[in-house]
Amino acid sequence: MKEKIIAKASDLFLKLGFKSVTMDDIAGEMCISKKTIYKYFCNKEVLIEESTSMVHKQVHEIIDTIVEKDYNAIHENFEIREMFRDMFKNNADTSPIYQLKKHYPEIYQNVLSHEIDQCTRYFRENIEKGIREKLYRPDLNIDVYVKFYYTLIFHINENTVSEREAQEIELEALEYHTRAMATPEGILELEKQLKKITI
User: Fold this and answer.
1) Long-range contacts of 166-171 (CB under 8 A, 24+ apart)
2) C-alpha distances in angstroms, 199 versus 23, 94, 140, 182, 188?
3) Does residue 8 contact residue 30 with C-beta atoms inside 8 Å?
4) How far apart are CA 42 and CA 18, in angstroms?
5) Which of 73, 126, 152, 178 has the fewest CB atoms within 10 Å, counting from its CB?
6) Closest by alpha carbon to 71, among 152, 139, 125, 144?
7) Which residues form the signal peptide (predicted)?
8) CA 6, CA 12: separation in Å to the nearest integer?
């Protein structure tokens, strides 16, 4: 039952917003009593923590699945972007990360510290792969480019209220990041991926 509550709560939080969804809403959606929810979660904050942790885990499992498909480095980044777009397309108008930062800053800080570790690893592996594939320049300072990119992405998500706008700016950031690193072959691959995009 605990897992079902977390799954339903995650779904509602992402669709309607962390602030607006109440314990009554979750109970109503599941046709259970609020008392049943409180049996597993002493308050809404604990439920939000568990929900964000579950979404975080799902996101990274999907990213791992994409990485295992062994696309080239640039294609891989576009596939991951597409996955995020699909995952959050039924969202509230407000970006979930922006809401979390505004209404539940402590939970947000916990999420952020985990995310930075995970993203640093993905970005580093992607850059190393792109260099091996001759799509990225061999002389890159990998640490600096990893830091540039996650600073850019987190800044967009923290400060952009609209989820749609955040996704549009993220696409621009991905193009910007890729162009900064790409060899002539990398630019050709980037142009190919951009032609396939639907925002």
Assistant:
1) 166/95, 166/97, 166/98, 167/84, 167/85, 167/88, 167/199, 168/199, 170/81, 170/84, 171/81, 171/197, 171/199
2) 34, 17, 30, 23, 20
3) yes
4) 17
5) 152
6) 125
7) none
8) 10
Instruction: Give the domains, in start order, of the chain with CATH numbers.
Output: 50-195 (1.10.357.10)
CA 48 remoteness from chain centre: 16
CA-based nearest residue to 164, from 76, 85, 49:
85
CB atoms within 10 A of CB 168: 14
Sequence-ordered list of residues with C-beta below 8 angstroms from that of 30, at least 6 positions apart, any chain: 4, 5, 8
65-112 residue pLDDT tens: 999 999 999 999 999 988 877 776 655 566 777 788 888 989 888 888
CB 121 within 8 A of CB 141: no
The rounded distance, in Å, linking the Cα atoms of 60 and 82 is: 14
pTM (two decimals):
0.83
What is the Cα 29 distance to its own chain's centre? Answer: 26
pLDDT at 145: 95
